[in-house]
């Protein structure tokens, strides 16, 4: 590790991970950047929301055996279901002061990785960085977006990596509520994945009410685990959907259309599991989870 500048490894340089990596490559705090990828990349080329092109040529490794030294920061940007694959990179990357930022969907960031390292080394991060891969290492960054971490020394150090980036780094004193608020939005995406339709499907008869049912279940379970979620959230989610572009494609729909595995467990299954733990019925999310799992099974067959 360098004393003056930070060494960073990004595990999973897909749409979000690649966008984050390209922007932090410009940070004056970062001296060494490594991408941990399944396949080789020559460089990252990211088209920013304002049309500017951000290019980066970090070191790319495709096998954990190629890691020669630990780093200051590991940024895990894989899908939530890819934890085991991501964890394979951790052993050679971890040193005595390494922090691991988990940039994933859902509310179980820390729980997913505590089998592999102590909880106090993990920084959970809520990501809202709309981006789309257009080719290997090529990404369209559609809106500036945000990354949100818990308040405290580790969270502050993480968001400092984004100084000078168009991605806003935020710290919050109530990460639990922030994560469940994001989950309230994400759980409704099951409707898009199941219908195969973009955002405009919310205007179809009965879909807004079904959206509210999914979100109300999320709100009730979130409150049971300590999140401060208001009664307005189901209507807020519907209003956001109604006022968004009708052709907008969320990530879970994008995954289904591309034949990729879907993050249904991190978005809907967790509501069902924690609902059962707290004695809260979650029939809408239960049905969504069952059907999305069946779709995934069909895609794998």
Automatic annotation (TrEMBL):
Domain Ketopantoate reductase N-terminal: 8-150
Keywords in alphabetical order: NADP, Oxidoreductase, Pantothenate biosynthesis
Protein purpose: Catalyzes the NADPH-dependent reduction of ketopantoate into pantoic acid.
Record Pfam families: ApbA (PF02558), ApbA_C (PF08546)
Reactions it catalyzes: (R)-pantoate + NADP(+) = 2-dehydropantoate + NADPH + H(+)
GO biological process terms on file: pantothenate biosynthetic process
Protein name per UniProt: 2-dehydropantoate 2-reductase
Domain Ketopantoate reductase C-terminal per the UniProt entry, residue ranges: 174-294
SUPFAM superfamilies found in the cross-reference section: 6-phosphogluconate dehydrogenase C-terminal domain-like, NAD(P)-binding Rossmann-fold domains
Pathway: Cofactor biosynthesis; (R)-pantothenate biosynthesis; (R)-pantoate from 3-methyl-2-oxobutanoate: step 2/2
PANTHER family the record matches: 2-DEHYDROPANTOATE 2-REDUCTASE, PROBABLE 2-DEHYDROPANTOATE 2-REDUCTASE
